[in-house]
Amino acid sequence: MLLGEVRTAEKSNEIKAIPWMLKLLSIQGCIVTIDAMECQKAITQEIIKSQADPVLSLKTHHRHLCLGIDSWFVQSLANGVANQAHSHHLDPTGPSSHGPIESREHWLIEVPQPLRRATKSWRNLQTIAMVRRTRQGGEKTSEETHWFISSLALSTGAEVLAKAVRRHWAVENQLHWSLEVSFREDACQVHKDNAPAHLACIRRMALTQLKQETSKILGIQGKRRGAGWDQAYMETVLNGGMV
Fold it and tell me: 93 and 104 in contact (C-beta within 8 Å)?
């Protein structure tokens, strides 16, 4: 569900807009996940200030920290993680009729002593994590590894981390993909003045209402057509699924 939207300034990007968005939302006690590009110390501080826990993806734009965490996990796993308090969770996904078999393995450990200097400037950082995704389709097997930093305590457990990461990855399928396929957002030719921002807001509000309506077993496109054909059903959609 989309809870808010902030328009980025011209010649700016999401990094500048996210702190404003965080101020608009009540996120106390929540886990906040953000893409790797927005893994920034100032954003982390805003999340902590709001009494929430960040789980931030790392990539090579934080080269030394990313390589340090990677090396530590490689070494720890080679030794069986015997000398390191940790939490582990395996999240298997079985085969489907249209896709490969995928499994996801998660490790969560407290920030080890050798990495504390590299993580010192990250506020309230308590744990680091690694997620390994293995996909098998036919005779081909591929593997991806992702690294995360977090304020979650080790006692929270890798299963909670796994749920947060899985829901973050679902944003692409459940929001962005739906906007493109069901609303053909990328094909929109409206570019003048504030119209693109207004239409984007309306699309997201409409998508939220359509997702909340569960009385009919239809896809988003089917619900849109149904609301256009049937005044009563449109009112049901607008009332959040309540007749």
Answer: yes
Do the strands 31-34 and 127-137 form a parallel or antiparallel pair, or are they unpaired? unpaired
Of 184, 194, 186, 182, nearest in space to 218 by CA: 182
Is 57 within 8 Å of 147 (Cβ atoms)?
yes
Report the chain's mean pLDDT, rounded to a whole number: 83
**Are residues 223 and 213 in contact, defined by beta-carbon separation less than 8 angstroms?**
yes
User: In a 10 Å sphere around its CB, with 0-12 CB exposed, 13-18 middle and 19+ buried, how is residue 27 labelled?
Assistant: middle
Q: Write down the pLDDT at residue 82.
A: 62
Got the DSSP string for 117-145? HHHTTSTT--EEEEEEEEEEETTEEEEEE
pLDDT tens per residue across span 209-222: 888 888 888 888 88
Q: Give which of 151, 163, 149 is closest to 38, Cα–Cα.
A: 149
Q: Are residues 94 and 101 in contact, defined by beta-carbon separation less than 8 angstroms?
A: yes
> Could you give the C-alpha distances from 57 to 62, 68, 239, in angstroms and in order?
10, 14, 37
CA distances, 9 to each of 6, 16, 179, 195 (Å): 9, 8, 22, 15
Report how far residue 237's alpha carbon sits from residue 227's, in angstroms, rounded to the nearest whole number. 7
pLDDT tens figures, 88-124: 898 866 555 556 788 889 999 998 888 888 888 888 8
pLDDT by residue (tens digit) across 162-209? 999 888 877 777 777 777 778 888 788 888 888 888 888 888 888 888
Number of H helices, E strands in the chain: 9, 6
Amino acid, res. 107? W
Domain ranges (residues) in the chain: 14-153, 157-243
**pLDDT over 70 at 58, yes or no:** yes
